[in-house]
Amino acid sequence: MKTKLIGIVAAAAAVLSLTVTPAGASAELTPGAIDAYVGQAMEATGLPGLSVVVTHGDRVVHAAGYGHDSEGAVVTAGTPMRVASLSKSFTAMAVMTLVDEGKVALDGPVADQLPGFRMADPRAARITVRQLLDQTSGLSDTTVDMSALDDSTSLADYVGGLATSGLAAEPGTRWAYCNANYNVAARLVEVVGGQAFEDYLRQHVFEPLGMTRSAVRDEVVRPADGYNSLFGLWLSRPELPAFLDGSGSGGVITTATDMGSWLISQNGEGRQLVTARSLNAMHTPSKVQDYGMGWGEDGELLTHSGNLFTYTAVEAISPRTGYGFAVMTGSASLTDTTYAVMLGLAAMAEGRTPEVPGADRQLIELVLGLAGLAALGLGVLGVARSRRWAARRAGRARWRVAARLVPVLTPVVLLAAYPSLVSFLSNGRTITWEQVTYFAAPLTVTLVVAAVAGVVVAVARVVRLRSVPVTREVAQPVAVGRV
User: Fold this and answer.
1) Which residues pair with 63 in a beta bridge?
2) Which one of 2, 86, 212, 314 has the lowest number of neighbouring Cβ atoms within 10 Å?
3) Tens digits of residue pLDDT in 32-88
4) Per-residue 3-state assignment (H helix, E strand, C coil) for 109-137
5) Residue 325 φ then ψ, to 5°
6) Model confidence, pTM
7) Pair 315, 326: CB distance under 8 Å
8) How many alpha carbons fall within 13 Å on the CB side of residue 109?
9) What domains are there in the chain, each with its CATH number?
10) What are the tens digits of pLDDT across the range 393-416?
């Protein structure tokens, strides 16, 4: 749910990353090897807490927790974690149980199966259930007011809120990641399944797999507040209010232990909730994007990441090797360490030496901190030299003076456009000022400091300019000689 600015920053961080390989890394994936690797990752990244589970075939290789949560409790394999968009794979599973029972037509129009699903765009009548799950419905953050939908009090209310929205594309022709797809799907489960979505998920997904510490409401399973990183400090903060409780797009709370059961089932082992054909359909990408039903392709791995404003998670399975991985943390910052740890574990599972995640977060925040200090220093220097600046420009045309103020006011323009710029980089997802004070806090603080420094310098220069007397050359009388 969090903006994809993380991906952009992470890509830049990869260039700056100082990754190393663990000394004496073992090709055998054992609990000891996993502990050693994750311990190195914790030390390198400075994460406060992390939980991990690795499965192979029908068994859990290792499930463990590391570090602590925001309440000071030791993180264990049973620590509740918000897994954000990993919830989508669970919602897809709930839908597919109804498909197998013949109660939902996967390739039938949603509008025919879900009374109350109507949109201002007539093309919405052609959206199929499959297109909701593979995110090719045409629903997009660019055409749906996601902020308004976050104020919904129920899935029925959420779906009703789509009535005035349109589509960004003809259904089935373009992929767009949009949480609305999975909340509509969750409402479909409610209506067709005949019970609240959270009850259906508990009865038909969690309980059959023995996931006793999993839910979609935090009053059932309460996670601790998460963390945000601010220039190297981890600050405990409550998750931002949003449509999470009972949602199909990002509401699941679970543990490493429970995720072990889920990964085993997703790899076709242990207790199966749907037919092999339906499980394969969930894992098969659409024709327009490497994304199936709550699972995306990354090489030979099927994965899905989840980003809230204080929690981060990733799940992955390898159909070829039968391994499964989940990494979860009660923290969020400008970089996503969970994905890097997961890739390291996957490398170990194949006998390759993993890369330990580097200090990307610390390096990025150090650069931003230094940039903020530089802006502050330049601001002080600019104010101190404002009299000299004004004296040199006294009497010049106003447009020329204004042009000289543009550089110092550029950070102000960037700050004013900041949420819109992040929204643009996040494919149109709605971004608010409150949101950019969470995971992106170091960048936000740096921009604010630079903007304030620019305004102060500009004001000082204008005030000095108005106080400088303007000297004008006076024409001297021409002496006329007498003849």
Assistant:
1) 53
2) 212
3) 999 999 999 999 999 999 999 999 999 999 999 999 999 999 999 999 999 999 999
4) EHHHHCCCCCCCCHHHHHCEHHHHHCCCC
5) -140, 140
6) 0.88
7) yes
8) 11
9) 5-102+131-358 (3.40.710.10), 361-467 (no CATH)
10) 888 888 888 888 999 999 999 999
